[in-house]
Design brief:
It contains five helices and no strands. The chain is mainly α and 153 residues long. The N and C termini lie close together (11 Å). About 9% of the residues have low confidence.
């Protein structure tokens, strides 16, 4: 059994149900790139907060260093998941790819926001954002996992 991957450059005319599946997998590359950029930015922020202290960043702007570390690690993991799902060479459902790409960025961003705001978990709109982020991420990961299990069997 061979896997095929459709490139948006090879699709001519209107998309059909048959060819739209793999075309939008490129959103996983975009998700990986965005998470990688957030990873680097969070690394520099933590560097300036601790190793090359800039007055006001550590303790005043960045109030929870440990939570920023959680965000940093989560951005790295999500970038790798995006790349891994893209690189397996199996056409994945478009919506599942979008869920992984969006949720993969939104989920670590929960921790990023919390690192700047100690009252984060008390605010209703942030709890709603967190729940939606987790829901979108879960849908994408479970959906892709089911596709992978079906492919393996």
């Amino acid at each position: 059994m061979t896997a095929t991957f459709s490139s948006p450059l090879t699709c001519h005319g209107f998309f059909t149900i048959d060819n739209i599946k793999g075309v939008w997998m490129y959103v996983l590359l975009i998700g990986a790139a965005v998470c990688s950029i957030a990873l680097i930015l969070s690394a520099w922020l933590m560097t300036f907060a601790r190793w090359f202290p800039v007055d006001g960043i550590d303790g005043k702007i960045l109030v929870d260093y440990k939570t920023m570390i959680r965000a940093h690690v989560d951005y790295a993991l999500m970038a790798l998941f995006n790349l891994g799902f893209y690189g397996i060479g199996i056409d994945l459902p478009s919506l599942a790819c979008w869920c992984v790409a969006i949720g993969g960025f939104a989920n670590p961003t929960v921790f990023t926001i919390a690192a700047f705001n100690t009252d984060f978990w008390k605010k209703k709109y942030w709890r709603i954002y967190t729940a939606l982020s987790f829901l979108i991420t879960t849908i994408g990961f479970v959906w892709i996992s089911i596709v992978l299990l079906k492919y393996a069997m």
